[in-house]
Amino acid sequence: MTETNLKRQFKPNKELDKHIFHYQESASMTSTGSWFIDLENKKSYWDDIAKKILEYPSDFVPSLKMAMTLYAEEHHEYIANIFSECAVSGIAFDTEVLMLTSKNRKFWARAIGKPVYNTNKEIIGVRGIFQDIDDIIQKEINLEKASEIVASQNSRLFNFAHIVSHNLRSHSSNLTLIVQLINDLESVEEKLELLDNIKDVSESLNTTIEHLNEVVSIQTNSNQLKVKVDFTDTLDQVTTSINQILQNKNVTINSDFSKAKFIKYIPAYLDSIFLNLITNAIKYKHKDRDPIINISTSKDYKNHNRVVLKISDNGSGIDMEKFGDKVFGMYKTFHYNADARGIGLFITKNQIESLNGEIHVESEPDIGTTFIIKF
């Protein structure tokens, strides 16, 4: 065999080795692992990069029995459906899913799969790739959260500006009008009568300024140090402070904090949240029954184990079709209570959102209201 023929013979192998090397480098740099499910022999195969991404040793032998352990529990049903459709009906998939490593670390992956056919056009397996895209997804989630925060802050700023321009201007106009009337009157008795009106307007003006100052202080105080706060202790402190009201209104409070006993939070904010929502439930009690307030905590395992607080009552309820988009607005009221100010829920929402939390409300007239807070 001549040297030329020898080179020709080995050239394809060298080319193949080069392609394999480039494939492995590309797959490694993009965190893309390959896999194959042999339906005939009921076996599963991963390449080395797939094992590395899933934090298994290079000599690990995967099996079909462990398939579901590779995915977060909340995605089990979805994964079972798309794999079944691919293996039975030949429907390829390209999706994003939460996967689990051997160390129980969750990460977002892009999973692509397609059926493998034999010469008789029968499906004998499923093959594909998955790519670790956790950084990309987390950036998208953070961007979405940032966008929501900005939108929420803009909304609060607009609300704040409206109160400043409308309410303060209203008080200012009233004072100006009264002063003009005093100047126009000659009778001392009539002038003295108008002085009482000045007192009323001044008190209203002072109350409005206090409310605005409270809103501003929320943003300033959100930088306070968070500490470990006990839900039971917080509830005890709040109920002790309003014990007389609870007794007079014959209020029953049921609590269950077994699923989440503590939270790292600003204590004053949690006190305020409990106080506002409990007194709100009492203030808007149903006219035909005593108030019953149920308070509980839980963990949102689908969303980074966030602590969730739920406060429900059997009060008058809110017509959500009419007022759903105004529940948390400043100076918005939905009942005919003489002492309704429409500031408590606005303050509560601002406190929660200033620490990147969420508050939602579910309510039915004559049935009651539930506030759900995700810290």
TrEMBL record:
Annotated InterPro entries: HATPase_C_sf, HATPase_dom, His_kinase_dom, PAC, PAS, PAS-assoc_C, PAS-like_dom_sf, PAS_fold
Residue span(s) of domain PAC: 93-145
Pfam families (alphabetical): HATPase_c, PAS
Reactions this protein catalyses: ATP + protein L-histidine = ADP + protein N-phospho-L-histidine
SMART domains: HATPase_c, PAC
Source superkingdom: Bacteria
The protein's name: histidine kinase
